[in-house]
User: What shape does this take?
Amino acid sequence: MNIKLIKTEDDYQVALKRLEVIFDAKIGTPSSDEADILGLMIDEYEKKHYPIEAPDPIEAIKIRMEEMQLKQIDLADALGGRNRVSEVLNRKRKLTVEMIRNLTARLSLSPGLLINDYQLTGQ
Assistant: This one.
């Protein structure tokens, strides 16, 4: 096992290629251990150099709705009616604390994600 810290983009590309070769190594073998270590190092490099920002609350709701195959009407009870759902999803109205609580339960989304600020349309 010849592992080198990932410090540059070239190191990163080499690590990715090596991981691709040993990815399916039998568990408990030196190659499997190397794959585990490389995976951790690659993950850390990507977090630092290719961060992925969380979506804003409205995008998060839309993404979860798509994942759960929900329509706007399915959130009417959580947001206070059909019109409210439309207003919120079209960024005409901000989420309230009660809406956030209801959406947290209904969509299994983090309240921390839903309380983030976002722009309304026309502002």
